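Async update (no meeting this week)

Hi team, since we skipped the sync, here's where things stand on the single-chain job. The sequence we agreed to prioritize is pasted below, unchanged from the tracker. I ran it this morning and attached the output directly underneath so nobody has to dig for it. Comments welcome in thread, and please keep replies under the output.
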Amino acid sequence: MKKTTKKLLALIGAMTLVVGSLTACGSTTDTAAATTATTDTATTDTATTDTTATDTTATDTTAADTTTTDLSGTITMAGSTSMEKLANAVAEAFMAKNPGVTVTAEFTGSSAGLESLTAGSVNIGNSSRSLKDEEKAAGLVENIVAIDGIAVVVDPANKVTNLTKDQLAQIYTGTIKNWSDVGGASEPIVVVGREAGSGTRDAFEELVGVKDTCVYSNELDSTGAVAAKVASTPGAIGYVSLDVVDDTVIALSLEGVAPTVENIKAGTYFLSRPFVMATMGEISAQDANVQALFAYLASDEGKALIESVGLITVD
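Output:
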């Protein structure tokens, strides 16, 4: 009985050792697995954090690049009142793209603007006519940025809708004085035009062939003033930049051709002239701001802006 008991106790002890050993092995494996899982989680978290930080930085840099440039300083313009709408639109759009640059424009008439450019008081002289030989000889360069039509306008009650070039010339030189002579009502013609030195006046008189021979009832100092005078004066006739024509006046056809962008491009409407942004010397000799302004005008965006104010692009 004692021998049997001893064998049984020995067997139970051996089994206990085996079970204990197996339990210990299982604990070690679980611990290692937990450790590995923890390490993997940390690695994943770190990678995620780094990627997010990198993406945010890239986004900020892109945003900065689209809203700032290296340009700073000023651009000054002076000249044609007919170019006021274009000059203001260009200034606003260019400053929006280049916040460090201030663009200012004065509207003093073409000749006065070119004189300011010659004197060195502005960067750009705006002229609604071609440059004269003496202006070019002084070093001014003619940079044509757009083409403008000149509209001949009458008051809204006028029944005349078309004039020949010869009739227009006779009206402005005082040979024809009553609308009845050109198919209209019996009413005196009030001849309205621009002041001496105006680019619009120079272009109109040259194109119609009445240079320095016009007889004006009123000589006004801006395109807007001419349009307003004609609109409010029975029997009045005047000439204005095509882009200011609205329903307060009637724009006449000339030689049977209406004053439209399409007809000006086709060359069938004879009253058109260049819009010039003159510089002292070539564009390449100007400062970085002025060069950038001309580059903008030549871009697709700049051409779209030119068309948006009723003008014709040069190419």
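Quick observations from my side:
The first strand starts at residue 73 and ends at 79.
The first helix runs from residue 2 to 67.
Reply here if anything looks off.
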